[in-house]
Amino acid sequence: MRVALGSDHAGFELKNHLASALSDAGFTVFDLGTHTTDPVDYPDFAAAVAKAVVDGRADRGIVVCGSGAGASVAANKVKGIRAVVAHDTYTAHQSVEHDDVNVLCLGSRVVGSAVADELATTFLSAKFSNEERHVRRLNKVKALESGA
Questions:
Q1: Is the pTM of this model over 0.90?
Q2: Range of the domain at 79
Q3: How many domains does the structure of the chain reveal?
């Protein structure tokens, strides 16, 4: 699986940790930055990850900022993205299984590297259920996105 990975300065260290851990686990990782701890704006990196998922360069994305919240808000503005903040493994897999989430947002000031590893692998291992009720609900979400 191809994973787009990005962060702002607050998430830089955790992003680098995840890049290495995911690569070691066999995932193809595209590190879209940031590449230093110099202050940057999280929407730029959330958008870069989201666009990589939408245009097919990556199957899923992970964005790390201080809380995960800002990255989620920004990523969700890109049409075709369903981003979620997850700080527990249930949300990390259930959001994919039920809602076909394609971008995981993590807070580097909320979770440590061991928990982030579990969240990322849980998220990336999960699959959309394709159950009728989940497809129906997902179609309603997509209709909202299209302005219907």
A1: yes
A2: 2-145
A3: 1
Specify whether 9 is catalytic: no
Q: Active site residue: 17, 65, 93, 105, which one?
A: 65
Q: Which two tokens stand for residue 84?
A: 């979620």
Reduced to 3 states (helix: H, G, I; strand: E, B; else coil), residue 91 is helix
Alpha helix segments (H runs only) across 3-88 = 12-24, 42-54, 69-75
What does the block give as tokens for 16?
């680098």
Q: What is the DSSP letter of 67?
A: S
Longest dimension (CA), the chain: 46
Write the CATH number for 77: 3.40.1400.10
For residue 18 the two structure tokens come to 């995840």
Write out pLDDT tens, residues 5-61.
999 999 999 999 999 999 999 999 999 999 999 999 999 999 999 999 999 999 999
Q: How far apart are CA 86 and CA 30, in angstroms?
A: 21
Active-site annotation holds for 98: yes
Of 35, 87, 93, 98, the catalytic one is 98
